Amino acid sequence: MLKWQIGDVTVTQIVELTTASLGPHLLPQATPERMQAVPWLAPFIDESGRIILSMHALVIQTPTQTIVVDTCIGNDKERSYPRWNMMQGDFLQRFAAAGFAAEKIDTVLCTHMHVDHVGWNTRLVEGAWVPTFANADYLFAQEEWAYWRTEEQEYGPVIEDSVEPIFAAGLAKLVASNHQVCAEVQLEATPGHTPGHVSVHITSNGEEAVITGDMIHHPCQIAHPDWSTTADENQTNAATTRDLFLEKYAGRPILIIGTHFAAPTAGYIVADSNWKEKSSKEKSLKAKGLAGKSPLDQNENNSAVSYRLDY
After folding, report:
1. What residues contact residue 116 under an 8 Å CB cut-off, 6+ apart?
2. What is the pLDDT of residues 160-203, one digit of tens each?
3. How many domains, in total, are found in the chain?
4. I need a surface site. Which of 56, 149, 183, 204 has the fewest CB within 10 A?
5. For residue 253, what is the domain's CATH number?
6. Bridging pattern class, strands 3-6 and 9-19
7. How far, CA to CA in Å, does 114 sit from each of 53, 140, 149?
8. Is position 219 within any domain?
9. Which domain, by its residues, includes 64?
10. CA distance 278 to 43
11. Distance (Å, rounded) from C-alpha 119 to C-alpha 150?
12. pTM of the predicted model as reported, rounded to 2 decimal places
């Protein structure tokens, strides 16, 4: 369990699971050869060079509120992805072991409504889906909810079992994508992965942090911001959002906490002083036919700046 202190605010990570099996589908550009060519990515790949993804919630404790950001996959839910179907995990036990009580959560904040971000919004009780955090307000961006009311779902009845019961219970609050949750916490619009996707900006006593959501799935997208995922609703917008985010936060003392980053999970965006060396390795891989083509392949020949996560 990882924790970070941002002024008077504490952020605690509660992991549901980690996986290296999704990478080839989600980010096919991130081949083992390319990942192993970038030394700073070592903590975020397995021994075979496959990218590791962590499914975790982040609990924000401010002086006035306890906020859960994203609620992972959940138990007992019918899902088309076999490893997530009818899961029987121990997330709630881990949540309690970290010192949190579901009934004492003030706010649940979903960066977007994908299957792995809303699952523990609800739990199955006597055949019915009921809110897991029964005393909390659940915040959803207005644009995100408008999109998913008509959009076809890929992984099963996610909206029906994990979002609609929150509205039925009267706990859902639709908010703007720049909504101020409390004095220390504000939403930040980061569209592209989904139309209403938001990140979470924390400010306290002169210190800052940003929880990414799926605007950046994996740290390799810091080095390769043009690598959009197969899960991005609009890949062009997602890449543009990443570019703008990196330009905005690079070189600043603002902690970036990745919603799917494996441990160490957080760090600071800095210019990559090994950019020329990395570009040489990329060109070598391309010459061997290992690197594949993407819009970034052209950008790498022309860009003078690349970024990495300093952890």
Report:
1. 55, 72, 73, 84
2. 999 999 999 999 999 999 999 999 999 999 999 999 999 999 99
3. 1
4. 149
5. 3.60.15.10
6. antiparallel
7. 15, 12, 13
8. yes
9. 3-268
10. 17
11. 19
12. 0.91
